[in-house]
Design brief:
The chain is mainly alpha-helical and about 250 residues long. It has one domain. The chain has eleven helices and no strands.
Length: about 250
């Protein structure tokens, strides 16, 4: 059983990540430039004062984008290759199938993650515990975006529609919200709108963990509770509403 699961995961990674990265190296440039472009703009505009926040924002964007990108890939495999139809009648489960594609998305953005991780170590200097907090927040953010991507992919009828939703989600949750900069820069009447996005809580947690944002212990616990709660809710909603079998 364990061998079967590992084989399914390996197959998903090879098909959805390694193949593209090996045969189309241009995709590596795209995945790196997407988060770094915002980082560079913020660094120049702030004259370097927000470089730490921008680097951490790049990590959040990369992980969130990796999760939502799952939507386009699942839709492509489902609608163009009819892979999902074959998997429905096979021993493969939706969970293992989604996990394999999700892992492939992390490998797909690994060049950007490695660069951003190096920049984090250089400019932010997180301790081991702070690094653990950052990784945990990124993991919750990734799980949230995976659940969103999977649910939308099962409803999507065309890959063009999937890519449109994926880009829209990334735009709303990682570029408009205060991910690359502290929320304190948003005027108070509009600041409450930012808290509608889970990425805001992830950014606060990451910035607070590295000392770039000052929050009380109670406030930090609230952020953790909201982010974890949002992740659980999205996962449950996705599991209940996603259509694995066509009706």
């Amino acid at each position: 059983m364990k061998r079967s699961i590992s084989s399914q995961l390996a197959a998903a990674i090879l098909v959805n990540a390694v193949y593209e990265m090996r045969n189309y190296p241009i995709v590596l440039i795209t995945t790196v430039l997407s988060p770094l472009s915002f980082l560079i703009v913020i660094a120049f505009v702030s004259r370097g004062s927000l470089l730490g926040q921008a680097v951490e924002g790049g990590l959040i964007m990369s992980m969130f984008q990796a999760g939502t990108a799952l939507q386009g890939d699942l839709s492509h495999l489902k609608n163009d290759f009819k892979l999902q139809d074959m998997l429905v009648s096979s021993p493969a489960s939706p969970t293992i199938y989604t996990m394999g594609i999700a892992l492939s998305e992390v490998i797909y953005v690994s060049p950007a993650l490695l660069i951003l991780a190096a920049l984090t170590q250089i400019y932010v200097h997180p301790s081991a515990f702070e690094g653990f907090e950052i990784l945990l927040a990124l993991l919750l953010m990734f799980l949230t975006s995976i659940a969103m991507g999977f649910m939308f992919a099962t409803f999507s009828k065309d890959i063009v529609q999937s890519f449109a939703f994926s880009r829209l989600l990334t735009l709303l949750f990682t570029t408009i919200t205060p991910v690359y900069y502290p929320i304190t820069l948003i005027p108070l009447p509009y600041r409450y709108l930012a808290y509608l996005s889970p990425t805001t809580y992830a950014a606060e947690i990451v910035q607070n963990a590295s000392g770039l944002l000052s929050m009380t212990g109670g406030r930090a616990l609230i952020d953790w509770a909201v982010l974890a709660g949002f992740t659980v809710v999205v996962l449950v909603v996705s599991a209940r509403n996603a259509r694995w079998r066509e009706r």
